[in-house]
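Researcher: Good morning. I'm working through a list of sequences from a screen, and I'd like to move beyond sequence-only analysis. For each chain I'm collecting a predicted structure so we can compare shapes side by side. This is the next one on the list. No need for commentary yet; just the structure.
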Amino acid sequence: MAIIDHEAELHRAGANITGWRSQLVFTARRYPLGAVGAVIVLTFVFTAVFANFIAPFDPTSTDAKASLARPGGVFWLGADFMGRDMFSRIVYGARISLAVGLGATLMGGILGVSIGLMSGYLGGAVDLLTQRLMDIMQSLPLLVMALVMAAALGPSLENTIIAIAIPLVPSVARVVRSSTLSLREQPFVEAARAVGMGELRIAVRHVLPNTLAPLIVLGTAQLGSAILVEASLSFLGLGIPEPYPSWGRMLSESAAEYVRTAPWLVIFPGVAISMTVFGTNLLGDALRDILDPRQRS
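Model: Good morning. Structure tokens for this chain:
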């Protein structure tokens, strides 16, 4: 009897795997651009996680003899003016971009969710004051506010994450607030109050989970924006300092002086930034269509 049950478990597990594969193939065919975006993002994440095994050289080691070496041979993507391998620096730069992008998105998301949930659920004076503060923060563009924050905090990995996370808060707070305003009037909230459940527990356990679908889409879009802003800050010298290999800093070091004599120093970091942001945008658009039936064509 135990053998039969074990075989039945294996059969059900195989059926579940087959079902997931079929669903994945169906989703990829229905949203091909989203599938392309997912492949780009997964490649980016894989490169960042396994950078130690992918990169053939230490990204910070210099070799004067290899200064401005052309792509090919030992240096697949060439070498910079200090003889550092460009391929290794771009691979390790993916790790920096992923750390900053995820860190800023998560920090901004947690703060925004807390503020938006409190503002939408409590309403009244709390909602009024909170939304005026969000209006002030949104009066400045994302990059401008990040520049102000980065200049005030100074260049470092942690400060760059904070400088990018704070400007992301208002958009998250507004999305959560708008969802909370409609959800707090729903019958399941009234039923929870009727059985004596506390307001904080209702907000966290019943209202918050119903706001996650738009947050996933927004978080994907903000991940790409955070990566792009980090590259911009590093390009201006306010982001990730040396010796960390940042894509934006690579452009800053090479764009003015070597763009004509060694164009690969500008092309490859620029392609890495563009492809990563492009992939996150494609994935975000697909997730929007999948999670929101009203957006489906």
